[in-house]
Amino acid sequence: MRRIAAAAALVSACALAGPAQASELIDRNAGGVRLAVNAQGRALLTYRAGGRVRRVLAWGAVNAIPPTRGRRQVEFRLDYSGGSRSARRRVWIGFRNACGPYDGPPLPWLVTACKARDGSYWAVQSWQRMLPGRGERATLGQRAWELRLAHWTGELPQLEVNLNWAYRRYDHLFGRFTYRGRPVFGFRVTPRGSPLDSFGRNLYLDTLDSAYGPGWRRESAFLTHNGSGAFCYGLFPHGNRPSGMGKRYRATIIGPGVTPDVVWEGNAPGPYNRELDAQANERIRALGSKQCRPN
């Protein structure tokens, strides 16, 4: 049990993530969302939040660049001035939508999407990013549904997740996050695991019907590793909180740059299997991350 406690302490110290802002975040707890894109490639989001109608103009970014020191990731230019009457007269009333029906790949947490005249895609997604870990009760702010905007061409980011066992007892997840064949990661983080640059990405892990209670509950959030884009996480007990092992797991991660957010979902691995665990350990070695070690 000493080895298990040490491993749990390492995850707690290095993997739990706090709030992190990203260029795709538009607002929270929005309803009645409408998306329009004009022939010049500017997107107009109209929605209701905080008891009033809001209008946000977004432009200037598509896809993502690989992690690069000394640069910022691509990000939208955002204009929130659409709430004023003068702004509506000047810009919003004359805005003409040229975005057609969406025919791109299926997207998780989708609110609305369309295909622009230049062939690129725009999409709005919404999900609860800030839920507390270990199944703790969420405050009103932590329960907020974030409204997130994406703009991309070509392939989507790829989230690879595998499952095996830690110490033959606890469910264990590992994998890699990539975009166009290259790992997605950041260079600087806080001690609690929050990115300090525009490249870092946290993976938000939920567990279904666990000791935390029925339904989906947030287990934790943790970073992809510098250089490899890999991650690994064991569902150990933490302090007075039980193991969050559930029937299924769901992982959500914010796409790099302004690409869509990605979700993986799969069943728990079930009872320990020595042969399958050995195969999984070979895949862990292939990740190339010093932080992910075979059991």
| Helicity level | 10-25%
Number of DSSP helical runs: 3
| Quaternary status | single chain
CA gyration radius, whole angstroms: 20 Å
The N- and C-terminal alpha carbons lie at a distance of 14 Å
Model description:
- The protein has 295 residues and is mainly beta.
- The protein is 12% helix and 36% strand.
- The protein contains three helices and 16 strands.
- The strands form four sheets. Strands 1-8-7-6 form a four-stranded antiparallel β-sheet, with no helix packed on it.
- A hairpin with a 2-residue loop joins strand 10 and strand 11 (182-183).
- It is globular and about 65 Å long.
- The chain starts with a helix and ends in a 9-residue tail after the last helix.
- The model is unreliable at 1-23 (pLDDT under 50).
Brief write-up:
With 295 residues, the protein is mostly beta strands. It has helices at residues 2-14, 85-92, 274-286; strands at 25-28, 31-37, 43-49, 52-59, 77-79, 110-115, 121-127, 146-152, 158-166, 170-179, 182-183, 202-210, 213-223, 230-234, 248-253, 262-267.
